[in-house]
Write a sequence for this structure.
């Protein structure tokens, strides 16, 4: 986690205890090229992570410390859903006439069953891409997701090839089957990929463009030793018209 000018997030543990996380403060986004310090936390399943702006806790007639204690009291209840937590916080702190913008996000941690994830180590060798594609196809068939096998293989081929070409060190591929299908490619480079449009005579440069066309969403997140490029695809619909689960 990193903090860009906003108050520290609140962590609500499953027992209802509340902690305001001690994250180093960074400048607001867009105010220059200063680096951000990051912190890593292990959160138990069922925790709530509460993100908010200072407009929620600060008023002209109420200082921030009082607002933080009111927020702590509103969150100190175990067993709530994120929606219930949002409602309780807004009922307790939302002024009748806000003088500042207010944003509030509550996210709950959960753990996927072991059978809903798969990962592979990939040697930094282009000849390994075909083997990974075959392994991914077998896993998708096991998950009864053959309808998205071709698209998923194409996405991963492009991402793995990019990692082999531009990164050094170990490469790892992971699939997550949740409410959508998530593909992740880990490498040791901290350079973020950029989408560009190849000209008609260019021999390369189309990989990430193809990924963006076939995936519903994609992005990059950084780790302590590199980065992860991830994509998200909708699950195919069952006969009842609902995503397969």
């Amino acid at each position: 986690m990193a903090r860009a000018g906003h108050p520290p997030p609140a962590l609500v543990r499953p027992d209802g205890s509340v902690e305001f996380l001690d994250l180093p403060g960074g400048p607001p986004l867009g105010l220059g090229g200063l680096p951000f310090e990051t912190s890593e936390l292990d959160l138990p399943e069922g925790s709530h992570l509460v993100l908010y702006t200072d407009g929620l806790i600060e008023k002209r007639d109420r200082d921030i410390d009082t607002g933080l204690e009111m927020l702590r009291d509103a969150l100190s209840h175990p067993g709530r859903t994120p929606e219930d937590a949002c409602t309780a916080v807004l009922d307790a702190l939302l002024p009748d006439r806000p003088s500042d913008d207010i944003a509030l996000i509550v996210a709950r941690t959960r753990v996927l069953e072991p059978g809903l994830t798969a990962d592979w180590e990939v040697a930094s060798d282009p000849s390994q891409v075909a083997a990974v594609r075959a392994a991914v196809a077998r896993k998708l068939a096991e998950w009864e997701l053959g309808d998205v096998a071709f698209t998923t293989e194409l996405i991963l081929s492009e991402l793995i090839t990019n990692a082999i070409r531009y990164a050094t060190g170990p490469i790892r591929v992971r699939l997550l089957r949740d409410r959508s299908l998530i593909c992740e490619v880990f490498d040791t480079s901290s350079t973020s990929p950029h989408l560009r449009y190849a000209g008609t005579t260019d021999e390369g440069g189309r990989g990430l463009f193809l990924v963006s066309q076939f995936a519903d969403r994609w992005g990059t997140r950084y780790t302590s030793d590199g980065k992860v490029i991830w994509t998200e695809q909708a699950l195919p619909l069952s006969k009842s018209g609902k995503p397969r689960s």
